[in-house]
Amino acid sequence: MRRDDLDPVDARLGARLAELRAQHGYSLGELADRSGVSRSTLSRAERAEISPTASLLNRLCAVYGRTMSQLLSEVEAEPAPVVRSADQPEWRDRASGFVRRSVSPPHPGLRGELVEGRLTAGADLAYDRPPVAGLEQHIWVLEGALEVTAQDTAHHVGTGDCLRMRVWGPTRFRCAAPEGARYLLAVVRP
């Protein structure tokens, strides 16, 4: 990838990932061992040679003890009291068909945030651990349907339904609708 082809968010995200690794004093090898992500993938993500997937970011967030939204907010614009629709940053995981819009980004004085998620038909996102143990999540399906698996229990959540849970282990989000799914995710740190 040429440097002028870099997505600005991916470039800032790569720099932030390198900064976090340095702050924690981890070598690439140590971070690979802690996260289960290969050294080469970590290196390429830090240099913004690849756009990290949601799964990769989830693994790194678990190591660093922060939510994905917190990490992404560190490379996005400063949060404001009113977040206008046009100012709500989007991030795309092109590999899985997941689009994340930060409706109400994390704020230092608040424990909650709102994220709009969109999954294409057949999309399947698996997270091997929560970024923060005991994270509270409320998933309100606005359009389509999701199958959310948490603690070995699958929940079918259709339009208008809301799933409430605390996340302690692996989770999986599958789009169960042929037209895709759109949902609101309320995240509250423990």
Describe this structure in words.
This protein has five helices and ten strands. With 190 residues, the protein is α+β, with helices and mostly antiparallel strands. The strands form two sheets. It has a six-stranded antiparallel sheet with strand order 1-2-3-10-5-8, with no helix packed on it. The protein has a four-stranded antiparallel sheet with strand order 4-9-6-7. The chain is globular.
Key attributes of the depicted protein:
alpha+beta, 6-stranded antiparallel β-sheet, 4-stranded antiparallel β-sheet, globular
Mean pLDDT: 89
Instruction: Classify the helix fraction into a percent range.
Output: 25-40%
Structural class: alpha+beta
Q: Note the total helix count.
A: 5
Multimerization state: single chain
The outline comes out as: globular
Q: pLDDT under 50 segments (min length 5)?
A: none
Widest sheet: strand ordering: 1-2-3-10-5-8
Rg? 16 Å
How much of the sequence lies in strands comes to 25-35%
Would you report the number of β strands? 10
| Element-level helix/strand string | HHHHHEEEEEEEEEE
Amino-to-carboxy terminus distance: 40 Å
What is the gist of this entry?
This protein is 26% helix and 33% strand. The protein is an alpha+beta fold.
